[in-house]
Automatic annotation (TrEMBL):
Species lineage: Bacteria, Pseudomonadati, Pseudomonadota, Gammaproteobacteria, Lysobacterales
Domain of life according to the entry: Bacteria
Protein family (similarity comment): Belongs to the glycosyl hydrolase 3 family.
Signal peptide annotation: 1-38
Alphabetically ordered keywords of this record: Hydrolase, Signal
Protein known as: Beta-D-glucoside glucohydrolase
Matches recorded under InterPro entries: BXL (IPR044993), Fn3-like (IPR026891), GH (IPR017853), Glyco_hydro_3_C (IPR002772), Glyco_hydro_3_C_sf (IPR036881), Glyco_hydro_3_N (IPR001764), Glyco_hydro_3_N_sf (IPR036962), Ig-like_fold (IPR013783)
Organism: Pseudoxanthomonas broegbernensis
Any one Pfam family match given in the protein's UniProt record, by short name: Glyco_hydro_3_C
Presence of the UniProt keyword DNA damage in the record: no
BP GO annotations: arabinan catabolic process; xylan catabolic process
GO molecular function: alpha-L-arabinofuranosidase activity; beta-glucosidase activity; xylan 1,4-beta-xylosidase activity
Domain spans labelled PA14: 481-634
Matches recorded under PROSITE patterns: PA14 (PS51820)
């Protein structure tokens, strides 16, 4: 859709706009407004009968050098004389549309990988792309062209989770190249759609390549893996997404690979990506990685040299601010031919045109998706279904599923009632997230469910979410009101000035809006329309009313926000932090209050930019220490559900705050944090059965729990309905079947150095020790038997297909899913290679007594290839191999050998 030229008055054209779609009206208005001498040339790129490439070239030909350079940055400005609207390429959709307000939040990527369910991933990816398309067109209707509002999404992350200490491993599909490729292909196809002319969205495979921490060194390190590790571990998923899924964008990484910046690499981009794989899309840098080329890697000395190097080596789009200023300088200095700038800009505009951005919306199938799909009931149900499918039951001595007749349940732990434990990183704003505590209460409404946080997430972290929110019964908007809560006035500015655009009563003050964006969330509920919506950034809120203490005594009243806040009580300023803050920051005041008296309360808050959070909380008089409260709850209960682990607040991307066991978002200790270990052991000592539910994006060394607790399950970061899904599994409404996409190592295991990119000793493919829980592991409430493994032949050539079939029967008493996994293991290898490798899987649902025959096709040329460093190419070694079929990489139920025979080409 085109922007309206400044010399056209939209008000005078209201009748015309009502008679035809806005985009068509804009296009016609643009043509009428163009200078006569440019009209013919401009019509070329609006001519839908021409190819996208021709139209893009015609448009780029009209641009100045400066205009072309500016279009090669993520925040591409409008070119009014050509009718080109502003566009920001930066969007995220890792497990739902992220940072654009209200959106369905599915389980984090590592959790979806744990489902081992490609058809379900197909549904999730399609739902995400539906919401992305609908949101984009809603933004356009509101005249917005900003970041996180476009159609080019920088997902999925298909880096290999080679080391459990990496904080961003949660964004990946795990440690195995084959599983990563299969889940990645599904995700990309779901995002990009199946229309023969217009792509639904652009997906982006990232970060190309050899990138998986440490976070603190990502701007400086130089990865030098062996060529075999490069081609057998770090590149296969990228190759598959390019060749099978036609992924249209690839993002480079921050680090160097063999001395070259991964965002300006001849070897990676020109030789491999385009030369060998035939990639036809566009390449972009990671954000501000072009700056790293000269500032941190010091490959060149100046920004213009870095820009020239990146463009010449195949990076068309700069996430950052280098290209716009530096490309013109580089061209004028002779560092970069303008023809290469033309080619890069043309490739980018071809991508935009293929998304239908310059065509009448009635011609674009995807533009017809209604906004009502966003956070729709169907997508909400799908989020719950994927969360159920992702949960991995690590251990069960029979305590699970819990009886629905259980009357007294203690839910304890720092992530039991924490929304962040649902979200991971790169997430949207869920409309009604359900924590594990809420899920358990909803599942058993007649039971007594007592909650105690018990311990902080990690030692030394001032956690603003630890203090209980002031509950609605202790708040009212005015003395004569029967409502409960505080009166909120929402302003379109940071200083509470003017007339509020929204006034409502908020039952509690406990908000966390992704990217500081209540706008879309409010619009989704019909509370604020496009003409008076709260903006994404730069807004303020004033809450007023009365605070009603239940008893007399000493209260600790806490306010928290990630930007400015002020708290007044009876007109007196008691907390004052009216300045920006990078993170959620809390402060408190202790006051003696009288029970039964009403205190006038006023909380003022402003949001500058990015994430927005604000809370009003308190500790009531006589509150016992959290640890003792948790133990008391455990002694009272029939069963304890401990919910702990990690959140995206401590593991993630290049964090600035470190805690014991964490460094820059990575982990230095793979065990459960010490605060939680101490509490968990004390709860076990009460003699009550303790079920451990782990929220995490990575492997945790829970050796003690495996040895001492009756049940352990991994919920990952399970998305907006994660609490319901966990409760479904705990009480048997869902039968768990998730599988580990990563190896869980023992706490005392000596792992290779984190910054060593050699694969020796890493992942189930090369680790020769005994894991705590192996790759592919996951239990069920029923049992499955395997029989009748058959191979289509005993001898096969490298290019010949080998058919594999196996019978699987549910031999238990309830319906359930089994994830059947096929591995290839060398028996007589010609050279050292991986111990075994996943080469097929199917998740199958079986009723009690039901048997099904599953079939797989293996081709040695694809499934047994290794990289021959001497020849500089893949090869297949003749010899004996074994097909292993089972329920995990260590739980092999059937096996059969075959021989790969030499062929004339060998």
């Amino acid at each position: 859709m085109q922007s309206i030229p400044a010399n056209i008055d939209p008000a005078r054209s209201a009748t015309a706009r009502r008679r035809q779609p806005l985009a068509r009206w804009c296009a016609l208005a643009l043509l009428a407004a163009l200078p006569a001498q440019a009209a013919d040339a401009e019509r070329a790129w609006l001519d839908t009968s021409r190819s996208f490439e021709d139209r893009a070239a015609a448009l780029v030909a009209q641009m100045t050098l400066e205009e072309k350079a500016a279009q090669m940055q993520n925040d591409s400005p409008a070119i009014e004389r050509l009718g080109v609207p502003a566009y920001d390429w930066w969007n995220e959709a890792l497990h739902g549309v992220a940072r654009a307000g209200s959106a369905t939040v599915f389980p984090q990527a590592i959790g979806m990988a744990a489902s081992f369910d490609v058809p379900l991933m197909d549904q999730v990816a399609n739902a995400i792309s539906d919401e992305a398309r609908a949101k984009h067109h809603e933004f356009l209707r509101r005249g917005e062209h900003g970041r996180y509002q476009g159609l080019t999404f920088w997902s999925p992350n298909i880096n290999i989770f080679r080391d459990p200490r990496w904080g961003r491993g949660q964004e990946t599909y795990g440690e195995d190249p084959y599983l990563t490729a299969r889940m990645g292909v599904s995700f990309v196809r779901g995002l990009q759609g199946d229309d023969p002319k217009y792509r639904k969205l652009d997906a982006t495979a990232k970060h190309f390549a050899v990138h998986s921490g440490p976070e603190a060194d990502r701007h400086t390190f130089d990865a030098h893996p062996s060529r075999r590790d490069l081609w057998e571990t770090y590149l296969p998923a990228f190759e598959t997404l390019v060749k099978e899924a036609d992924v249209y964008a690839v993002m480079g990484a921050y680090n160097r690979v063999y001395g070259e910046s991964a965002s300006a690499s001849t070897f990676l981009t020109q030789d491999i990506l385009r030369g060998q794989w035939g990639f036809e899309g566009y390449v972009l840098s990671d954000c501000w990685a072009v700056v790293d080329i000269w500032k941190n890697h010091k490959i060149v000395a100046t920004p213009e040299e870095a820009a020239a190097l990146a463009v010449k080596h195949g990076t068309q789009l700069d996430c950052g601010d280098t290209y716009a200023d530096s490309i013109p300088v580089a061209v004028r200095k002779g560092l970069l031919p303008e023809a290469e700038v033309d080619a890069a800009a043309t490739r980018l505009f071809t991508a935009r045109m293929r998304l239908g951005m310059f065509d009448p919306p009635e011609q674009v199938r995807w533009a017809q998706i209604p906004y009502s799909v966003n956070q729709s009931p169907g997508h909400d149900a799908l989020a719950r279904k994927m969360a159920q499918a992702s949960i991995v039951l690590l251990k069960n001595d029979g305590v699970l599923p819990l009886s629905r007749d259980t009357r007294r349940i203690a839910v304890i732990g720092p992530t039991a009632d924490d929304t962040m434990a649902l979200l991971g990183n790169y997430y949207g704003t869920p409309a009604a997230p359900v924590t594990v505590l809420a899920g358990i209460r909803q599942a058993l409404p007649d039971a007594e469910v007592v909650y105690a946080r018990g311990a902080d997430l990690v030692e030394g972290r001032d956690d603003p979410s630890a203090t209980p929110l002031v509950e609605p019964q202790y708040l009212r908007p005015s003395a004569d009101s029967a409502e409960r809560g505080l009166r909120g006035e929402y302003f379109r500015n940071k200083d509470l000035s003017g007339t509020p655009v929204l006034v409502r009563v908020d039952a509690q003050i406990g908000f966390r809006w992704d990217r500081g964006s209540p706008t879309d969330n409010l619009m989704a509920r019909g509370e604020a329309g496009p003409d008076n919506a709260v903006p994404n950034d730069g807004f303020s809120i004033r809450w007023t009313g009365q605070l009603l203490p239940p008893v007399s005594g000493s209260y600790r009243i806490e306010a928290a926000a990630n930007d400015g806040f002020r708290l007044y009580l009876d007109g007196r300023l008691v907390l004052d932090h009216w300045e920006d803050a990078e993170r959620l920051r809390a402060d408190s005041v202790t006051l003696d209050l009288e029970g039964g008296r009403a205190y006038e309360v006023r909380l003022e808050y402003y949001e500058d930019e990015r994430d927005a959070s604000v809370r009003l909380a308190w500790d009531l008089p006589g509150a016992r220490p959290p640890f003792e409260t948790a133990l008391e709850a455990a002694r009272w209960a029939d069963v304890v559900v401990f919910v702990g682990g990690l959140t995206g607040d401590v593991e993630g991307e290049e964090m600035k705050v470190d805690y014991p066991g964490f460094a820059g978002g990575d982990r230095t200790d793979t065990r459960l944090p010490a605060t939680q270990r101490k509490l968990l052991e004390a709860l076990h000592a009460t003699g009550k059965p303790v079920v451990l539910v782990l929220t995490t994006g990575s492997a945790l060394a829970v050796d003690w729990a495996r040895q001492n607790l009756p049940a352990v399950l991994v919920a990952w970061y399970p998305g907006q309905r994660g609490g319901n899904a966990v409760a479904d599994v705990l009480f048997g409404d869902a039968n768990p079947a998730g599988r580990l996409p990563v190896t869980f190592y023992k706490a005392d295991e000596t792992l290779p150095a984190f910054d060593d990119y050699a694969m020796a000793g890493r992942t189930y493919r090369y680790f020769e020790g005994e894991p705590l829980f192996p790759f592919g592991h996951g239990l069920s409430y029923t049992r499955f038997g395997y029989s009748g493994l058959k191979l289509g032949r005993s001898r096969v050539g490298a290019k010949e297909a080998l058919q594999v079939s196996v019978k699987v029967r549910n031999v238990g008493k309830r319906a359930g899913d089994e994830v059947v996994q096929v591995y290839l293991h060398p028996l007589q290898p010609a050279r050292t290679r991986a111990l075994k490798e996943l080469r097929g899987f199917q998740r199958v649902h079986l009723q009690p007594g039901e048997e099904r025959t599953l079939s797989f096709t293996l081709v040695p040329e694809k499934d047994l290839r290794i990289y021959d460093e001497a020849a500089g190419a893949y090869a297949v070694d003749p010899g004996r191999y074994e097909v292993q079929v089972g329920a995990s990489s260590a739980d092999i139920r059937a096996r059969s050998a075959f021989t790969v025979i030499p062929t004339k080409d060998d």
